[in-house]
Amino acid sequence: MKAGILACCAALLASAATSQEIRPQEQARLERFERVAGAALLEAMAGGSAQDVAALGEALSGVPQVAFDPSLAGEWKCRTMKLGGLTALTVYTNFKCRMSLDNTGVVFEKLTGSQRTSGRIEMRDGRAVYLGVGYVSSSAPQAYTSLAPDFEGTGEVVPDVAVFERISERRARLMFPAPVNESDFDILELTR
To answer: Among 83, 94, 119, 147, fewest CB within 10 Å belongs to which?
Structure first.
């Protein structure tokens, strides 16, 4: 039964893999993923506190599994880790996030904290990619698809792109290459 549900989800997601157009700015950030991640990780490991480096190691541990599974749906704890840029490594406390599945992918929302994000995770070129909009809690979220073609972000609203990896039914991560504000690479660690 579970294998049938997984196959059905995979087929639906594969057929809808290109339901959102990715803007060239976010595509360029994805293409630099490995280079940006490597430089930011080296800076974080060299300059972060021992406690923050340990948290980073835990967030990055584990082998990614099939990205989409019905077990993703529901509430998650999530904490942001900012690597490089203004500071070598900053690890925040947990906030609340939610994922829900529909027939084209996963809707993701960071629900609490001063910096939030809302968008969709869909398959693109063999990996799960998040396209969304980051915003401060006093602003109303908007859809990624409604961003103007030349919109680069403001202090309050930014386009977000990330690679999503599910590690288990209780762990996942979103990894943001070259975010618009503050850091060189962000990780949003998701746990239950």
So the answer is: 94
